[in-house]
Task: inverse folding
């Protein structure tokens, strides 16, 4: 086999490969096209899910470290911070102009506020009792 | 404030919330922790109000809500008696649940604000998350209302059971799933409210069969639910802070439920299916009436005072009965007097004493009992053998040795405080009735046990008077 033949053969193979690659790319584009928007929509969800699961682990380890004597204040604090749902109520009330949404936002914000103030204050009262008795 | 700044503020708030929980690992750091929590909440609220695009009218409405709600919350929190703490917490849980329902409703009618679609055409994924948020929120609300009513004695603490109860609940659960699927498919407002109503009914039915003394589990479980509801809303609104906080609270409540169940050696399903104490109590009563009363040794407060004055080591075991009688203050006085007499006084707390996790610790702390004198079960159990006196006030099942020996007993396997090992055991009780589990306590009939019949507070007061002489 002389060098020219070999070169021609190699070139032909390279051209075939190029054509196949172009075909594969075209196929990929046509089949994957409908998947793209779904993937885009799933992305924020997956990110939130990741954060959610990691936060579950953080919560798990932090709460096991809470001394049993302070389990009641723990409930008070978790109660107060779960009312961070007020953020949703504020957004619903302040963005957009649906009056139904504003109405529900107001109700949500009011209820959450009861909890935020009540939860933190009652916890403070409880903790003050624990702190004040060092000397016995 | 730019969008990214808001997100950054949420991140800081999340970290502060984690630090708030972290602080509770010791009383000395706990108050700073609570402060972190407040600052975190403040940052979250202010950052949201300053977000770009917030309308002035909306800000005014929110501030009005904050003032009204904050006023009510402050009033409740400063007025509440520590004995009624479980009721307050149950009431607060119900509010979180209801707030979750309202926020989901607001998002449903104004989806553009959250970028989850348009009214009537909300993204499918968001509808799933929204319906989960609503359903968990509504269950939390009605379940907590029932828990509140039971704790506040607005309704009987006895389990309410009827035939086919579990099948009914299962049916409603399936109906709920069907409604959620239909809601996601159609995005109809009617279905949104139907989900809320059916979930309300489910929350109600799930809690009524659970007895009063199982309330520590229920309250912790509802605590957990309120967290999951917040997380569900967080997913709907794609809000990082809500998701993180919801997960923290959910995990916390779940752990507390687990600890409470372990304290009773019962599975969470056993508690949730309910009816505990109802049948067992009936059986015990039937037994008791058929048999002649066994002799017990009962004594006067003066006898108790005499014995304790000469004791070297005294362990006090408070239970829910002490809280009901409001005897914690006078109990601490008794402890102080005994310490003056040279006795070593400590307190033993069972994990499920009281009506919510840690309730007894708070009551004793309120009565100025030093933190160092209060011990958990594992810590103090070895010490009963060296104790001269075990002073059981308003507790019963948690001291019952049948939990160790009698395999047929309803409380078999439950960890108990080993008061039987003390030289003398005092039981302050109103009468001979068995405890919540309906199991007779063998200890009452032992030679080294002395029963002090009467109201916990009065009896303790009489002991204090006798000690002062």
Result:
């Amino acid at each position: 086999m002389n060098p020219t033949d070999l070169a021609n053969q190699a070139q032909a193979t390279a051209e075939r490969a190029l054509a196949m690659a172009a075909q594969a790319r075209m196929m990929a584009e046509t089949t994957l096209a409908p998947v793209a928007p779904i993937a885009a929509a799933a992305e924020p969800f997956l990110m939130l899910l990741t954060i959610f699961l990691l936060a579950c682990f953080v919560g798990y380890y932090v709460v096991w470290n809470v001394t049993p004597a302070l389990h009641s204040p723990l409930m008070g604090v978790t109660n107060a911070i779960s009312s961070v749902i007020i953020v949703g109520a504020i957004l619903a009330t302040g963005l957009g102009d649906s009056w139904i949404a504003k109405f529900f936002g107001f109700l949500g914000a009011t209820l959450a506020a009861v909890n935020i103030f009540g939860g933190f204050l009652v916890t403070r009262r409880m903790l003050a009792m624990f702190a004040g008795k060092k000397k016995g | 404030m730019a969008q990214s700044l808001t997100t950054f503020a949420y991140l800081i708030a999340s970290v502060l919330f984690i630090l708030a929980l972290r602080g509770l690992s010791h009383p000395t750091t706990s108050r700073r922790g609570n402060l972190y929590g407040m600052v975190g909440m403040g940052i979250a609220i202010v950052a949201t109000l300053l977000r770009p695009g917030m309308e002035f009218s909306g800000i005014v409405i929110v501030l009005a809500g904050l003032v009204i709600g904050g006023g009510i919350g402050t009033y409740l929190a400063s007025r509440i008696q520590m004995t009624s703490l479980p009721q307050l917490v149950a009431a607060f849980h119900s509010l979180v649940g209801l707030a979750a329902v309202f926020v989901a409703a607001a998002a449903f009618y104004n989806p553009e604000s959250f970028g989850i679609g348009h009214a009537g055409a909300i993204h499918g994924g968001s509808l799933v998350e929204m319906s989960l948020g609503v359903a968990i929120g509504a269950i939390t609300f009605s379940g907590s209302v029932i828990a509140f009513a039971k704790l506040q004695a607005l309704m009987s603490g006895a389990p309410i059971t009827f035939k086919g109860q579990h099948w009914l609940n299962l049916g409603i659960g399936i109906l709920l799933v069907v409604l959620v699927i239909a809601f996601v498919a159609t995005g109809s407002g009617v279905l949104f409210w139907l989900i809320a109503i059916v979930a309300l009914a489910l929350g109600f039915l799930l809690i009524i069969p659970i007895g009063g003394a199982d309330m520590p589990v229920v309250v912790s479980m509802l605590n957990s639910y309120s967290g999951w509801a917040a997380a569900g809303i967080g997913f709907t609104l794609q809000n990082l802070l809500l998701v993180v906080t919801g997960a923290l609270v959910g995990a916390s409540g779940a752990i507390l439920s687990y600890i409470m169940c372990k304290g009773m050696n019962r599975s969470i399903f056993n508690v949730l299916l309910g009816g505990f104490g109802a049948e067992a109590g009936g059986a015990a009563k039937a037994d008791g009436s058929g048999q002649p009363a066994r002799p017990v040794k009962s004594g006067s407060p003066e006898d108790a005072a005499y014995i304790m004055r000469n004791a070297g080591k005294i362990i006090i075991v408070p239970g829910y009965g002490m809280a009901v009688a409001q005897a914690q203050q006078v109990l601490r006085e008794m402890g102080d007097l005994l310490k003056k007499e040279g006795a070593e006084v400590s307190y033993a707390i069972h994990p499920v004493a009281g009506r919510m996790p840690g309730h007894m610790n708070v009551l004793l702390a309120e009565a100025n009992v030093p933190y160092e004198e209060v011990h958990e079960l594992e810590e103090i159990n070895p010490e009963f053998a060296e104790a001269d006196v075990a002073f059981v006030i308003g507790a019963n099942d948690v001291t019952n040795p049948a939990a160790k020996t009698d395999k047929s007993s309803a409380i078999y396997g439950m960890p108990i405080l080993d008061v039987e090992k003390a030289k003398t055991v005092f039981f302050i009780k109103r009468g001979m009735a068995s405890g919540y589990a309906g199991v007779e306590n063998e200890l009452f009939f032992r030679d080294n046990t002395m029963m002090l019949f009467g109201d916990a507070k009065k009896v303790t007061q009489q002991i204090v008077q006798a000690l002062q002489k």
About this structure: Chain A touches chain B through 86 residues (CB under 8 Å). The radius of gyration of chain A is 31 Å. Chain A has five helices and no strands. The CA atoms of residues 25 and 129 of chain A lie 70 Å apart.
